Amino acid sequence: MTTIRAATMHDLDALAELLDGYRQFYEQPSNVQAARDFLRQRFGQADSRILVSENGEGALTGFVQLYPGVSTVGLNARWTLNDLFVCPDGRERGTGRALMEAATQLAREHGVARLILMTQIENERAQHLYESLGWQRNTAFYGYLLDI
C-alpha cells in the first residue's frame, strides 16, 4: 500500500537519497550531502512543495517537487512540477501515478490554474504517464535555456 503525504524535515535523510537517485538518473554525479543541503534549503525557505510516497513499512519510495510561480499573461498561479522520481523498487506499482495525482490535487486545493513540467525527449516512460493523466505536450512555445 502506497501512501502519499507532504514531506517534512523528518524525511530529510531518506529524501536526500531519493533526490540523489533522481540526479543520477539525469547523469549527475552522486552527492547525497549536496542533495541534503539543497533539500534543507528548500524546507528552510519554504519555496517548494514536496510530496513523498511511502510503502507499507514506512520507507520512502518516491517524491514529487513543485515550485510555485505566477503567470502574468494568465494573471494566475502556475506551479512547475520540477521533479518526479520513484525508486526502482517502487516502480510498476502506480507510485508515479499516485504522486502525480496528489500533486494535481494539491494544486487544485491551492487554486492553481496550471501545472507545467518539462522532461527529456528520451524519457518516453514518463511521457506516457503524463499523457495518460491528461497532460498535453506544449506545441505552442519553444523552451530556451541560458546557463549563467
Would you summarize the structure shown here?
Helices cover 35% and strands 24% of the residues.
List the helices and strands and how they pair.
Elements lengths: L2 E4 L5 H14 L6 H14 L3 E6 L5 E12 L4 E11 L8 H15 L4 E3 L7 H9 L16
Parallel strand pairs: 4-5
Antiparallel strand pairs: 1-2, 2-3, 3-4
Helix pairs in contact: 1-2
Describe the structure in your own words.
- The chain is of the alpha+beta class.
- It has helices at 12-25, 32-45, 95-109, 124-132, and strands at 3-6, 49-54, 60-71, 76-86, 114-116.
- A 5-stranded mixed beta sheet has the order 1-2-3-4-5, with helices on both faces.
- The longest helix has 15 residues, at 95-109.
- It starts with a strand and ends in a 16-residue tail after the last helix.
Task: List the defining traits of the structure above.
148 residues, alpha+beta, five-stranded mixed beta sheet, globular
